[in-house]
């Protein structure tokens, strides 16, 4: 099964600020570059990557996208999902226009680190619809407790493609399946919402992530969304907090082994090509 990684983070500390990594030993020091990723994944069936904005310090989010644009076309990078600030009208249209020349295939605003009310404002939603009118997807990054907020946002922006990152961040360590599953069910009935199979090994208790542990959660997502609305991502280097990059790739193949060849192809790469137009 060939894979397009739709969630590849990269870190260049000499260029950009990553305040969120402070206090996370596995991520707090050093760079995580395309060359590092390529060296680790050679021979693993990764046929391309899409850079995912890395939550850089607010002052740097535009600089990040501008720099990443210079790297696209090398080291397997097919495009980028850039950060944006839909909550602020000033400069939003200009940023969308500039991103048209930066190989941007989608946008994201990390919403689990800001007040819940942010995505509920009329201006936020109006600006999100501008992204949709450009034919670009928006990645929704919410915690499991916020899936109702994600549903409200999706219903308010029903004319565009939305992607729920990290399967909605389930609390696997706490075994909080039922409430999460209900939130997934409500989102899955919306045809313009897809889901990203990424990140979840980090939500298990340290050292416990396994195919057996993750399977019920993954199977529920596949059952509700169907193989035609699931895309794959590594969440590297954050995946180091869970299974690790290569184990996650192996887990993915095992978790999807029950799908048909066509369904595996869709989840692995085909849906990414369609949603992000790469």
Commentary on this structure:
This protein is globular. With 278 residues, the protein is of the alpha/beta class. It has an eight-stranded parallel sheet. The protein has one domain (3-276): Metal-dependent hydrolases (TIM Barrel, Alpha-Beta Barrel). Helix 5 (147-156) runs parallel beside helix 6 (177-188) and helix 6 runs parallel beside helix 7. The protein is 36% helix and 15% strand. It is built from nine helices and eight strands.
SSE blueprint:
Layout: E1 3-8, H1 34-41, E2 46-52, H2 61-69, E3 77-83, H3 92-99, E4 104-110, H4 122-133, E5 138-141, H5 147-156, E6 162-164, H6 177-188, E7 193-197, H7 211-225, E8 230-232, H8 245-255, H9 261-276
Parallel strand pairs: 1-2, 2-3, 3-4, 4-5, 5-6, 6-7, 7-8
Helix pairs in contact: 5-6, 6-7, 7-8
Quick rundown:
By secondary structure, the protein is α/β, with parallel strands linked by helices. About 35% of the residues lie in helices and about 15% in strands. It has a single domain (about 5-275), classed as Alpha-Beta Barrel (TIM Barrel), CATH 3.20.20.140.
